[in-house]
Amino acid sequence: MKIRKILVNQPNRIMLLRELGKFRRELGLTKKRRFIALLKKFPAVFEIVEEGVYSLQFRLTPEAERLYLEELKVRNEMEDLLVLKLRKLLMMSMDKRILLEKIAHLKTDFGLPFEFRDTICHRYPQYFRVVATGRGPALELTHWDPELAVSAAELADEENRAKELQEKDLIIDRPLKFNRVKLPKGLQLSKSEMRRVCQFRDIPYISPYSDFSHLRSGSKEKEKHACGVVHEILSLTVEKRILVDHLTHFREEFRFSQQLRGMLIRHPDLFYVSLKGDRDSVFLREAYCDSHLVEKDRLLLIKEKLRSLVMVPRFPRRGAPKTDSVAGEDGTSGHEDGIIKEAEDWSDIDSYLSGDELHDDENDDYEDDWSDEDDDMPPDFEDDDDGTARIRLSKSIKQTDTVTNDKEKVLTPVFPDGRPRELW
């Protein structure tokens, strides 16, 4: 993703391979690595073009180019939705003002563009404005819309209530005698934990858009409001998940407690806290079914297509089935259930999008050492994993005696396209 971001900023989206060495620190490559070996690891994303004898360039493949243009189109069409997300986020805050530095932590989760500070924040003065504070610029709400002050939990509750009334064909609208809690599959709670969950659900719902300045810290009502805020933030994200560390940045704006992670764990019927990876993630339970999103965002469908291109190997395994297309037309990657086995599998791409550095241990399998001079040489041979050149059987040489010399074959060095190479 970082290399693609650098590449698309170039004229005609093509770049000299030697110029990529200037961005080595930005890419997080502290060790010496050959960029040509890095680009060859993703043959469905990048292609190397030879211009002249000692001039190598690289660009996106036609499929990756089409996917990038599709992503730009989707982001332009979703700008109104992104403005709506920012407005709802500001409406939930205490002072209706949040630092831009903190909002930047949610840009990947909300689907905001990288340059949202210079574009979206200044294009809609009727909704919000950028103000200077002692800790940096902040985004402030200028117009309160009561029609937006309806949470996703309230809308879902109204839909579920209407479905129940329609199914049971009730004449009188009255609450059920027994309030049962439907737990996710595989979640087993003790009697005390089940009692605590039921008691918490009996507390009247507090809208995340209501004034919570009077709520006492540490009370059950304040925790009910905090759970509503986290629920609403998760419903605004693309994948209905977010890093717990990103939520902790908003303790002051939403008056979260210091034990935010513990609060999320106390409500397993609402949230699922994953310990996979270096940092914990929290998922919205109701948005998932067997580790798959029920409703997928358009940006998420594009991300699945990109993931399918990244996963195309350089050297296909023997016996692997050949596919005519990399990605399906329905937005999936050609697999029956899609590329995502679990939503946590996207943490690597999300780290690239959020600007995290590429760790060295993830690049230890790159074949050769990096150098600008070697990157400028035309790739005569395909490098194997051990760094040696591959020698192929020349097509122009025929066997003279197929009966007696069946096991003896003449090996001649050839170019990757099969043309014989001169011996020296």
UniProtKB/TrEMBL annotation:
Domain PORR: 2-311
Region (Disordered): 318-340, 352-424
Classification via InterPro entries: PORR_domain, PORR_fam
Pfam families: PORR
Biased composition (Acidic residues): 358-386
GO-annotated molecular function: RNA binding
Full protein name: PORR domain-containing protein
Organism: Populus deltoides (Eastern poplar)
